Amino acid sequence: MAMNHIRSLRGVSIGKEAEVKSTTVVDANILKDGADAKILPDSEYSNWLWHLLDKRLALSELRRKNIETLPYEDLKCFVKLDNRARIKESNSIKAKS
């Protein structure tokens, strides 16, 4: 299947392919009769989208900090990670006995 795809790409000129990729999301269409999605300007997307790849602190780093001075988002992350660690530890103890 990959060879068929490579053979079909041999006839495509590089300039035309680069132009298509800069204005549309290639192969993002899942509908039979649909078209590829257009790439919108950054201002058209929600703000939360730009923070998905931000690095979060690990539980060990959060434990080293003073909990009373943590910002709200870091405190939420700390509670979530701490709960997850306690549940895993509890499950491990139950599995051993």
Characterization of this structure:
- The chain starts with a helix and ends with a helix.
- With 97 residues, the chain is mainly α.
- It has helices at residues 2-9, 14-23, 59-64, 72-96.
- The longest helix is centred in the last third of the chain and has 25 residues, at 72-96.
- It is built from four helices and no strands.
Anisotropy-based shape: elongated
C-alpha-based Rg, rounded: 24 Å
The overall strand count is 0
* Unreliable residue stretches: none
Mean pLDDT: 81
What's this model, at a glance?
Helix content is 51%, strand content 0%. The chain is built from four helices and no strands.
Chain-wise SSE layout:
Layout: H1 2-9, H2 14-23, H3 59-64, H4 72-96
